[in-house]
Amino acid sequence: MITPDPDDPVFALHRGGKLAVASTVPLATREDLAIAYTPGVARVCEAIAADPSIYPEYTWVGHTVAVVTDGSAVLGLGNIGPRAAMPVMEGKAVLFKQFGGVDAVPICLDTQDVDEIVATVTALAPSFGGINLEDISAPRCFEIERRLDDALPIPVFHDDQHGTAIVVLAALRNAATLFGHKLSDLRVVVSGAGAAGIAVTKMLIAGGVTAGDVLLCDSQGIIHSGRSGLNDAKAELAALTNAGGRTGTISDALRGADVLIGVSGGSIDESAVAAMATGAIVFALANPTPEVHPDVAGRYAAVVATGRSDFPNQINNVLAFPGVFRGALDAGARRITEAMKVAAAEAIAAVVADDLRPDQIVPSALDPRVAPAVAAAVAAAIDPAATGVS
Fold first, then answer.
1. Is 92 a catalytic residue?
2. Residue 136 burial by CB count (10 A; 0-12/13-18/19+): exposed, middle or buried?
3. Does residue 300 carry a catalytic annotation?
4. Same domain, 307 and 237
5. pLDDT tens digit sequence for 145-190
């Protein structure tokens, strides 16, 4: 059990929270007050009532998202509930502001019922320009995102799925380029079939990896169309991937594979990594403990990436989500499409494309070039039909 330590700089930084509300307008005189509040504000309210399309321009909605969780899958800590999740959601909001210039409000819901979450977020949605779902367990997260995407006229994005997937695609593009490979030539094993694993698999296929050359593994081994008891998300991918109908364990899957992408939180034996193809690529992304330690993976792989900041090639979602929402909000997008996600991945990859090394296949999480590049790419990839603009 961890208790607050007043001498611990982590607890000192978090005391009082990491966010505050600040006014963007002056309130120094009676005239200021009359314009910012009554009677002046009534004119803006009437104008919005007459033409709702101006709503994002004359409120904070055009630059603000909700960061929503139910606390069911927080970091690697599991189902710790909404209150214990709040420091993470505050942190996410700080990252939105720092890297994308997007204001974000953490909302931790005291329910894990799918219907209640969908109803609550739908009711709150008029206050925001986008919804960032966070740390909601699979497979519930798939239904929640789908239903909100159908119900709301603003972008909905589950970062644990799509943020991870975007950065993985960017990293794999650059790793493949470094050694003269095409994505379509790679045999890829994804270890973990939760929210991140499902999204990573779909994103890699959208980005150019041949679907039949992907093996998706869960705790029961390789997923294939002959397996019973698969949930809808796994069954969908079982029909697309693993063209050879391979069965067995993660070790069986990795034999001769070119790429391992670990998003499982489990562990993978060194012998399984040693059996991969020469010049393999290993992304062991479980955090804080990778599926295989980077030093061990480095004995056999040409490129190694993790989710940690103390090793090279950190696959960090902050490379994606601030720019994705900045671009979507700026362009008035109603949806975040596969094309927008692929464009985001290509933009991230391009930032370091002229300086690729085995220890630099993605930019630093602190690189100021990333979010503007992603925002521009996402905005350019938006289908005008997805904005309501004809």
1. yes
2. buried
3. no
4. yes
5. 999 999 999 999 999 899 999 999 999 999 999 999 999 999 999 9
